[in-house]
Design brief:
About 45% of the residues lie in helices and about 10% in strands. Strands 5-4-1-6-7-8 form a six-stranded parallel sheet, sandwiched between helices. The model has no long low-confidence stretch (mean pLDDT about 95). The structure holds magnesium ion.
Length: about 230
């Protein structure tokens, strides 16, 4: 971890609106329904829809990369691919692994008077399903999943972050973004928002710091604790 808690306090203190990535900080989406299996099922659905010869798709197990690949090589299939993936993501979150610290951050934001928008490359319907199933819907003011049928909307594109800020009339200086991927930091940078990197796997801390994360933590609970302690109160 590169950021000492006092610095984390300073980063969080002025924040009014928290932009929160989903897969990683809140829930390990594919912990129960593994991504390679989802990729196989997505490929089967694409094949059934006439998607023979999707070059390079066989070895791709990064589902969002697979969606981009479909958009690049068979744009006629991107809508069906996105629809099928959204269904599979919804199935996955039902057996995904919640990150207890993520839920704590949602609750700490509420108790400290901060609003939260979820900003994710996952499908909005899947995120809403997860939040609803766990009684967390009221903790977020908006869910900004990838724009259906438009994989280009995904981070590192800043579009979803900009939409989340626009919907809440927030300025970048009022916000912090919390994400666990380099593309999150890049999207935050492009949107003018500082990003807290959440390093949930070994080696991620250096990558997130190198990408420009303002601080890197290895625990979402640490963010919740700082917010909950009132040190970052408005
Ligand atoms: Mg993530």
């Amino acid at each position: 971890m590169t950021g000492a808690p006092p610095f984390l306090v300073n980063v969080l203190r002025p924040v009014k609106h928290v932009l929160l990535d989903f897969d990683g900080p809140v829930c390990s989406v594919f912990a129960g329904l593994p991504a390679p299996e989802v990729a196989d099922r997505l490929r089967a659905a694409l094949l059934a829809a006439g998607g023979q010869g999707l070059a390079g798709s066989k070895s791709e197990t990064d589902l969002l990369a697979l969606l981009r690949l479909v958009a690049d090589t068979r744009p006629d299939l991107v809508t069906v691919a996105d629809d099928v993936l959204a269904e599979l993501e919804t199935e996955a979150v039902r057996v995904g692994r919640p990150n207890p610290g993520g839920e704590s951050v949602l609750r700490a934001c509420a108790s400290s008077g901060r609003s939260v928008s979820v900003v994710s490359n996952n499908a909005g319907v899947a995120i809403e399903e997860y939040l609803s199933a766990r009684g967390l819907t009221d903790y977020v003011v908006g869910v900004f999943g990838r724009t259906p049928g438009e994989p280009a909307s995904m981070k590192p594109n800043p579009r979803l972050l900009l939409e989340a800020m626009e919907a809440t009339a927030s300025r970048p200086g009022d916000c912090i973004f919390i994400g666990d991927a380099v593309r999150d930091v890049e999207a935050g940078d492009a949107a003018g928002v500082a990003t807290i990197g959440y390093a949930n796997k070994p080696g991620k801390d250096a990558k997130l710091a190198a990408a420009g994360a303002v601080v890197v933590v290895d625990s979402m609970q640490l963010i919740a604790d700082v917010l909950g302690a009132g040190l970052g109160a408005l």
